[in-house]
């Protein structure tokens, strides 16, 4: 059901024209749409910091959200899930900002957020290195997630009426749609949205927040290994709909089998 698994890994380094979810693939974000504070000190900041990069992404596509920092954060998260930001490589905020057509400031702020999430680490005077991760870390994340989510799902299966589960049908179908076109970034978002909606029925906001953060971390790519194939995404997505069907039917035996297989199987 999940995308972060021991079978998937980072895709090859950037190729020209890659980075499909990034802002502005062939064109820069127009300067009149970038907040003044985000572009005013671009030259002096980049010169003063002297940051450089060992690997640079290709020019990104235009973005549509209002917050520059939010646009960049979404684009970087998508690139991480897709394996387009390569584990072990160092990327500087000025270089990425130049690709996005914005100053280094919103890129640096987005990278700081990713550092908190464990996706990158700060390299003083150079930029940010994408965290190198392996199967053991994913297995540990899966174990912690299982301790949190499995008991909650089993409890909800016994108490939540069928009509409330039916409302989640579009979320399960969204994972199938993303998997059908092989869009790993969209799949990651829809996958987490489905799990958040299920866990939200518990009424425990802290549990939902912690589980979502663990889920996001489990989706970053491995250091090496084959990228997830479309067929594998479709199989994972099918688990969402199967689980929802079992919850609606209140078939506790099937629910228990599905959720335990999800966290103990290869998917983690």
UniProtKB/TrEMBL annotation:
SMART domains in alphabetical order: FCD (SM00895), HTH_GNTR (SM00345)
HTH gntR-type domain location: 66-133
SUPFAM superfamilies: GntR ligand-binding domain-like, Winged helix' DNA-binding domain
Compositional bias segments (type: Basic and acidic residues): 29-55
Pfam families associated with the record: FCD, GntR
Domain of life: Bacteria
Region (Disordered): 1-66
The entry's keywords: DNA-binding, Transcription, Transcription regulation
Protein name: GntR family transcriptional regulator
Organism of derivation: Streptomyces rubiginosohelvolus
Source taxonomy: Bacteria, Bacillati, Actinomycetota, Actinomycetes, Kitasatosporales
